[in-house]
Amino acid sequence: MKLTLLLCFAGILHASAGLFSQSALISLSVHDKSVKEVLKEVETMTEYRFLYNDDFLDLDRVVSLEVTDNQVADVLDMVLESAGVSYQLLDNNLVVITPADVQQTHRITGTITDSMTGETLPGVSVVVEGTTMGTATDEEGRYSLEVANENVILQVSYVGFLQERIPVDGRIVVDVQLTPDLRFLDEVVVVGYGSMRRSDMTGSVVSISEEDLRGSISTSLDMA
Hints:
Radius of gyration: 33 Å
Number of helices: 6
Helix content: 25-40%
Number of strands: 14
Strand content: 25-35%
Strand order of the largest sheet: 8-7-10-11
Distance between the termini: 105 Å
Oligomer: single chain
Order of helices and strands: HEHEEHEEHEEEEEEEHEEH
């Protein structure tokens, strides 16, 4: 019974400390101090503890700050924004600080179709412009891609279609209609019984020159 009461009491104290730490107001006056030094001052004034890797963060940047009775979260926003980093509050008042681009991921999904027929296109290449990050559409013409931010440009390309540059502009669903390349569609192939577009051919096509015909041994046109 005593052990149960003790554990309950300890849990209440832990919850109260966390709640107090998150809602506490602090006043801070710093001039030309590094971000790292400011974080140490915040630690002495609150229940927060900061976890970060010096090798990947620039916390030596000098800042000046004057705040009176501000919430800790607001103070952290002001201090860490200047250093180009992000933070996340975990259990036990532990604050993990990471580079800003680590947490700012943006997932884009969509479907690629033929603008003339409306049919979905499998195997279409979708690449983030200026990078090697990319993917290809599945059998149903769908793709999914994780990008660094919401303002990238997608390069969409497929054999027989014109390449497209698509600005994402913050969208999470980016459907694309590819336009057939007329240079491929309108290529005419002459066959034994007329002519037709290469895109309409269902069998294999072999081309021979006039010189080959003249050098062949044949007694009639159909044999040639």
